[in-house]
Amino acid sequence: RSRDAPLRMAVVGSGPAGFYTASRVMSRLPNAQVDMYEALPVPFGLVRHGVAPDHPEVKNCQDRFDEIASSPNFRFVGNVSVGRPGHAAEHCIVRLESLMRHYDSILMAYGASEDKKLGIPGESTLSGIYSARQFVGWYNGLPDCAGLEPELARGDEAVIIGQGNVALDVARILLEDIDVLRKTDIAEHALAQLAKSRVRRVHVVGRRGPMQAAFTIKEVRELMKLADVAFHPVDRSLVPQDLKALPRASRRLMEVVLKGSPASLQPRASKSWSLDSCLSPKLFLGHRDTPTAVASTEFDVTSLEAPFDPQSRVATTGRTLILPSDVVFRSVGYKSVALPGFAEAGIQFDGRRGVVSNDGLGRAMRLVSDGNAAGAAAQQVPGMYCAGWVKRGPTGVIASTMQDAFATGDAIVQDWLSGARFLRCDPSHRAGGWEAVAREAGPSAALSVSWDQWRKIDGAERGRGRRVGKEREKFTSTVDMLSAVA
Ligand code: FAD
Fold it and tell me: Which residue of 13, 30, 103, 445 has the lowest C-beta tally within 10 Å?
């Protein structure tokens, strides 16, 4: 049966998952009304605060998001976080429960705001150890990370733990010529500190070998092309002698890794990097003179059961190795956490995988005991959906997030058209959207930022950028963002 009133949906999070799901729903249900809640006054999630500043082409998706936001059926509710205390005092918090009263459907698309830890001694007690998430947020002007001030002038040696694309982004930012970075939208405070950096040698360390690493060819190539940055060859025994037998993507990647960088041929490149294989971090050691600061990292040396098998398991060898570490970056993954109010809303969060429990198509699911010994049955949570990193875990690029968001959008539309239960089917619930939620939130709702106000922030940032010869100079505090709309 068809519904008599248009679908009213709240989206939590304004990254690619939120926008692409909203666009899919709005294109299939042209009357649907979407309110997008974003904790920051500015939209786009990791496209703004994750994607590296020297990858401007990746951010072109923002033009599409701007088109989506221009629809009269779409409303951006910036500077309003759902459930969680936000980034600053000048900020509005609304309860999930309040959203449930005023929408038919809620889409969780709030990404991954924390990071995985190594859980080894020294990690949280020694200074000079940072998560890649914080460092990336710092150079990209994320307000929460603006005060990080990583200690880049303590010495030559940087260790990055993890071998995914985020690790390579961190390596590139550390090694890139500062004059190249100057032309990007990197935060001014980061430029100032990177200009004083003494880092000359970057180790990108993995528990396994090049054949098992998670990085992709584009990111490795970019590092190989950096002027005046040499690459130390990988352990040849970890790459098959005959590359021809490998699948195409893996063969091309290994060719790039083995070829190395042209700068390696220069007798005196001023900086260098390496992919250090088969090292599992064991503990961080303090400095002799400053015991509270990290000086080195001790690793267990591992061995691969099948070095050329991308799925190879590792075993320890009993040997250890110490790498000098004036600064350390932990890049072992982002992590999503549950929102306050999930339990009351009947939403189950899989803490191990860091995802909202769902049916793979984005429908939130919970296990319900069927009252006999047979165990529990999975049941759909009416009106609740998820997309993006909080649906499938913190991996994947914007293109895969888009595909996954479309699948969630299709599930929402299908459920709506098939007459499935949604939130306001309870007669005591009135779908009143943001106006009704704002009334319940009280005076702080006046701090919300609309799309037109975001455009003002955008214009002000571009203006600041023009004055220093870059595309934009981001505001790095919510106070400054809000004063641009006042
Ligand atoms: P996010 O983009 O994280 O968006 C989530 C949004 O929700 C954020 O704006 C957040 O502020 C908001 N939010 C969180 N909690 C709340 C709350 N309680 N209430 C309201 N709002 C909330 N992909 C590429 O294709 N190319 C690249 O070059 C690339 N580089 C990357 C570099 C890094 C360092 C990282 C981490 C990722 C990169 N990616 C890249 C991957 C890409 O950014 C992700 O696939 C994509 O952003 C995930 O989208 P999402 O919408 O799930 O989450």
Answer: 30
| 137 C-alpha to ligand 1 centroid (Å) | 11
Q: What value of ipTM does the predicted structure carry?
A: 0.99
Q: What pTM was estimated for this model as a whole?
A: 0.95
Q: What is the pLDDT along the chain (486 residues), one digit of tens a residue?
A: 456 789 999 999 999 999 999 999 999 999 999 999 999 999 999 999 999 999 999 999 999 999 999 999 999 999 999 997 655 678 899 999 999 999 999 999 999 999 999 999 999 999 999 999 999 999 999 999 999 999 999 999 999 999 999 999 999 999 999 999 999 999 999 999 999 999 999 999 999 999 999 999 999 999 999 999 999 999 999 999 999 999 999 999 999 999 988 877 777 889 999 999 999 999 999 988 888 999 999 999 999 999 999 999 999 999 999 999 999 999 999 999 999 999 999 999 999 999 999 999 999 999 887 766 667 888 999 999 999 999 999 999 999 999 999 999 999 999 999 999 999 755 555 668 999 999 999 999 999 999 999 999 999 999 999 999 999 999 999 999 999 998
How many whole angstroms from 14 Cα to the centroid of ligand 1? Answer: 8
Distance 401 CA to ligand 1 centre (A): 9
Ligand 1 atom index nearest CA of 40: 11
SS3 for the chain is CCCCCCCEEEEECCCHHHHHHHHHHHHHCCCCEEEEEECCCCCCCHHHHCCCCCCHHHHHHHHHHHHHHCCCCEEEEECEEECCCCCCCCCEEECHHHHHHHCCEEEECCCCCEECCCCCCCCCCCECEEEHHHHHHHHCCCHHHCCCCCCCCCCCEEEEECCCHHHHHHHHHHHCCHHHHHCCCCCHHHHHHHHCCCCCEEEEECCCCHHHCCCCHHHHHHHHHCCCEEEECCCHHHCCCCHHHCCHHHHHHHHHHHHCCHHHHCCCCCEEEEEECCEEEEEEEECCCCCCEEEEEEEEEEEECCCCCCCCCEEEEEEEEEEECCEEEECCCEECCCCCCHHHHCCCEECCCCEECECCCCEEEEEEECCCCCCEEEEEEEEEEECCHHHHCCCCCHHHHHHHHHHHHHHHHHHHHCCCCCHHHCCCCCCCHHHHHHHHHCHHHHHCECHHHHHHHHHHHHHHHHHCCCCCCCCCCHHHHHHHHC
